[in-house]
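Thread: Newbie trying to understand structure tokens

Hi all, I'm a second-year student working on a class project, and my supervisor (Dr. K.) asked me to get a predicted structure for one chain before our next meeting. I've only ever worked with sequences, so writing a 3D structure as a token string is new to me. If someone could post the tokens and maybe explain what I'm looking at, I'd be very grateful. Here's the chain:
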Amino acid sequence: MSGTTTSPFLAGARAGFAVFLPFSVGLMPWALVMGMAMRSAGFSPVEAMGMNLIVFAGTAQLGTLPLIVAGAPLWLIFFTALALNLRFLIFSAALAPAFHGVGPGARWLSGHLLTDGVFAACVDGLQKADDARWRLGYYLAPSLWSWLLWQTFTLLGIHAAAVVPQSWSLEFMATIALIVLLVPMSRVRPMLVAALVGGGAATLLRDMPLKLGAVVAIVLGIAAGFLAENLEHRRQRR
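---
Reply by user tm_fold:
Sure, no problem. This is what the structure looks like when written as tokens:
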């Protein structure tokens, strides 16, 4: 009797989950901070969870909250969120070859679930694997785990906001989580270029009104990352 064999999808899912698991440690405090921040901004628990489920983009949520509280124009809130999420264009361009052979439904789901941590953990493995089913499992397992953790710990943060003193200033935990993600992503040259250009521009433009310097810096960083990506592809073709 021959033994049962694991399907490529399940094998990829196990491998992807194992690779992503260390990154998920930093996701939990960040989600807690996000939940408390939304409650501090005046959101009801239902409004906070509604935003969390629909937007599912921690950086954009955290970046637009001060504008919402300040009563900023809707166009500014919209373009700030758009600028904060532009990095996903680079992420998508880097991951696109890994989704050859994957149906449109799975692609739409994968696009919604894409996060910084999943990209940082899985980009190398996705680019090296040949089986489309293995790649899909490798991507979806950590993505769904990330989504579940984010929703669960944000909900905990929403309810913890009533008992945790604001004087604790836990916002720094979100910054630390982003720094932890930046280190592995910087191994990819376009990401490193984008980080250096964006970080430098944000420092130089920090005195712009309405914090628009951060938005401009993000756009410049994304543009630099795309340029580096194109130059790298041209170099590989020669």
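A couple of things are worth pointing out once you decode it. The chain has eleven helices and no strands. The longest helix spans residues 8-40. Feel free to ask follow-ups in this thread.
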